[in-house]
Write a structure and sequence with these properties.
single chain, 326 residues, 13 helices
Length: 326
C-alpha cells in the first residue's frame, strides 16, 4: 500500500505540474498580466492553506511576530521568483523556460557558497558542465528565444535557489514550522505583498465584462485549475520528500521536468530542432548527475565542518545500504 500511495503521489505531482504549466501558459496568452496572474495563484493557495488548517488536515503552525519578521524576506524572494517565472512563460515556450530552469543546480551551488559557505565537491562541480553546456545549446537553437524570457527564467533560478538556501538556514534556527507550514505561510505573505503591487503596476480592474470574456474562452476555469495545481504540486513535493530519500526526490524532480517539457511540446505542437532536443537532454542528464554527485561521499573544500558533514552523510548512506541489503 505504501508503494501504491507513493506512485499515486508521484503521478499527482507530475499531473499537477503539467496542468499548471499548460493552463498558465494559455492564460498568459489571452491575459498577458504576469503580476496579476501570480497574485491570483497566491490568493487561491492562501485559501487552500487556511482551509487546510481550519479543517485540521495539517497541524497549525505556532505563528509569532518574530517568526513572521524572519520569514518576510523569504516571502519577498518568493514573490519575485514566481513573477519572473510567469514573465518567462509569457515570453517564450514552456519547454524553453523549463530548459533554462534546469540551471537550478548551478545557482544552488553558487547560493550555497554565498549564504552558507559550502564549497562543492569535484563530482558536483563536474556535473554542472553538461547542465550549462546543454542550456547553451538549447538556447542558441530555440525558435521562441528572446532576452526577456531567457533572463526572466535565469532570474527565477537565482531567486528560488536563494529562497531554498535561506529557508534551510531559517529552518535550522528552529522556528517550529515544517516545510508545508512554512510554504503555506510564505504563500499567504506573498499574496499580501504582491496584490497591491499588481494593482498599482498592471492596473487590472476586475469587471463583469472581463470575467465574462475570460469565462467565454474557458480561461476563468483554467486560471482556477492552474492556481490550485500551483499550490498542490508544491505541497505534494513535500509529502513525497517525507517518504523518500533526497536523492530519489531529486531524480523524481528531474523526471518531472522531462515530463513537463514533453507534455508542453505536445500540447502546443511546438517545433523542436535536433540541436534544441540534444541540448535539453544534455542539460537534464547533467541534473541527474548532479543529484547523484550530491550523495557521493567526499571531502568538501569548505574546511573541517564541510568534511564532517560529508562524513556523516557517507556514514548514514552506508548504514542505510547495509540495512537494505542485509
Amino acid at each position: 500500500m505504501e508503494t501504491v500511495k507513493l506512485a499515486l503521489l508521484f503521478g499527482a505531482w507530475y499531473l499537477s505540474n503539467i496542468y499548471f504549466n499548460i493552463f498558465n501558459k494559455q492564460l498568459l496568452k489571452v491575459f498577458p498580466h504576469p503580476l496579476t496572474c501570480t497574485a491570483v495563484h497566491f490568493m487561491v493557495g492562501s485559501i487552500l492553506a487556511i482551509t487546510m488548517w481550519t479543517l485540521n488536515l495539517h497541524e497549525r503552525p505556532n505563528i509569532k511576530i518574530e517568526s513572521l519578521k524572519s520569514v518576510s524576506p523569504l516571502a519577498g524572494i518568493n514573490v519575485l521568483g514566481n513573477v519572473l517565472t510567469n514573465v518567462s512563460l509569457r515570453a517564450v515556450a514552456v519547454s524553453f523556460t523549463h530548459t533554462v530552469k534546469a540551471l537550478e543546480p548551478f545557482f544552488s551551488v553558487i547560493m550555497s557558497f554565498i549564504f552558507l559557505g559550502t564549497v562543492p565537491t569535484l563530482p558536483v562541480a563536474a556535473s554542472l558542465v553538461p547542465i550549462v553546456t546543454g542550456v547553451a545549446l538549447a538556447s542558441t537553437s530555440e525558435l521562441t528565444f528572446n532576452w526577456t524570457g531567457f533572463l526572466a527564467a535565469l532570474g527565477s533560478n537565482v531567486t528560488f535557489q536563494s529562497r531554498n538556501v535561506l529557508s534551510k538556514k531559517f529552518m535550522l534556527k528552529g522556528a517550529g514550522m515544517d516545510n508545508i507550514n512554512l510554504f503555506s505561510i510564505l504563500t499567504i505573505m506573498s499574496f499580501l505583498i504582491l496584490a497591491p503591487i499588481a494593482i498599482a503596476v498592471e492596473g487590472v480592474v476586475v469587471t463583469p465584462s472581463l470575467v465574462e470574456s475570460l469565462r467565454a474562452e474557458g480561461m476563468l476555469l483554467k486560471a482556477i485549475i492552474a492556481s490550485v495545481s500551483f499550490h498542490m504540486y508544491q505541497q505534494i513535493s513535500y509529502l513525497i520528500l517525507q517518504r523518500v530519500t533526497p536523492v530519489t526526490h531529486s531524480v523524481g524532480n528531474c523526471v518531472k521536468r522531462v515530463v513537463v517539457i514533453v507534455a508542453s511540446v505536445i500540447a502546443f505542437n511546438a517545433t523542436v530542432s535536433m540541436q534544441n532536443a540534444f541540448g535539453t537532454a544534455l542539460a537534464l542528464f547533467g541534473v541527474f548527475l548532479y543529484s547523484q554527485a550530491k550523495r557521493m561521499p567526499g571531502k568538501s573544500a569548505a574546511g573541517e565542518g564541510g568534511a564532517a558533514d560529508n562524513a556523516k552523510e557517507a556514514a548514514a548512506w552506508i548504514a542505510a545500504w547495509r540495512a537494505k541489503h542485509a
